[in-house]
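Predicting holo structure, 6-O-phosphono-beta-D-fructofuranose bound.
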Amino acid sequence: MPEPKLTARYPTDLPAWKALKAHHKAISRQQLRELFDEDSNRFEQFCVEAGDLVLDCSKNYLTAETRELLVQLADEAGLRERIDGMFAGEHINNTEDRAVLHVALRAELSDQVGLEEPGVSEVWQTLNRIEAFADAVQRGDVRGATGRRLTNIVNIGIGGSDLGPVMASRALRAFWQPGMRFHSVSNVDGTQLADLTEELAPETTLLVVCSKTFTTQETMTNAMAARQWISGALGERAVARHFAAASTNHAAMDEFGINPEFRFGFWDWVGGRYSLWSAVGLSLALVIGMDNFRRMLSGGRRMDRHFRQARFGENLPVLLGLLGVWYNNFFGAESQAILPYDNRLDRFPAYLQQLQMESSGKRVRRDGRPVKTDTGMVIWGEAGNNAQHSFYQLLHQGTRFVPVDFLLPARSSGGRQPQQDLAIANCLAQSEALMEGHESDDPYRVHPGGRPSNTILFESLTPDVLGQLIALYEHKVFVENAIWGVNAFDQFGVELGKKLAKSLEGAVAASEDYRGGNQSTRGLIARLRRY
Ligand code: F6P
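Done. Tokens:
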């Protein structure tokens, strides 16, 4: 279904934007803690729940009036139509003329999503095939070339074909099936593969080549190197028993020699950074089992329903997205920190980096005109107390204004509740200190306070909850870009560097002259040759 008209109005021209400008002047003069002093019901008013997630956004520069104006901004920017357009399968990725339907990957057959025939049933067929394969590998019905069980699953991919499986497999460590182990290889330099091949036995290793295009330099280089490792140790015929793949490029999977039974397709309406829910999650499903994988899908779907149905003022992704715009465009925040208090979420900030920065790192709008406001913030972060002992100094006393999202599970995912209780105490202490600050006669010890945060609380890090968290942030990014009028689903900015790397390959590897580029590149190549 083609996309109808592109939104033409700049957000800065909308009445709500102008009202928010004036409102910002007033509210930014206030101390955050004063907002609590003024309203004894503040926590209840700004604590919103959906599914298993509790979002406390009371520690923000946010009053009833702010929320109203932000919701008005969403209305005036046409957010409702944009959401409907995504679910209806409109080609909202207008620069690539594609629908954006990762929501269909976690839909029930009865859900109204605008997927062309055969619709969600095709998605389900692939899920069923993944299930049969994952079960067979876990039961030992599918074995390696020497008859040994395949218990070491190695995901070979990069970007969206790596970060999702890696983040989720670490987050869901408590759900790994007996004996199964997850590993990954992504960077092109070959060190990860070198380390893994030292540690793993080829007889028990299943390598999952994960690439939407099956042409990505890093992934194909690593996949070919892994292929040599397997065929060198077990013979060429073992390739068909030790490799599986997820891709939209069936011809390339053929050419590589991927066993037709061990390959799983997906579709061009699944963006790389939104693809964990598709066959890109194959390596994850192999390790946590398909029941858990389906629970993650159902968590995503729960958040989709909430996003679609809840009023904007009580809608978690809408609130997070609007707060993102509020801090980015009105307070001038350049970055946002993601701070999970469960070490198993240690790759969640990296996952969100791609999700948010590849989606929102744009300076041209959907309608081709330059933006007039800043777009994507720099996303960064680290898990819990490790972060406290590293960069929190800057958050508390530095000159930068960095809004924070804390992610906080009540229960330990590692079965050590007393230690998780310590983590919780630390998390609560940090958000309080950031907000309240600390007065002192000694200027070195003053904490100015007034530093805002969201706390996203949940009972425990289950597959269902992880699905809700991922979908929450996917939709948050959607909201921000809908306000800015930006297409969140292309990534042309990564192409130029890739092209240049291709043209430099020969010059770096051989003694071939490099005539392109500039003095600096040529100078560095000349120096490199000395080594
Ligand atoms: O870095 C650019 C990018 O296209 C990402 O969007 C994508 O997730 C990644 O490369 C990997 O692409 P592929 O899955 O095709 O190997």
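The CA atoms of residues 355 and 524 lie 33 Å apart.
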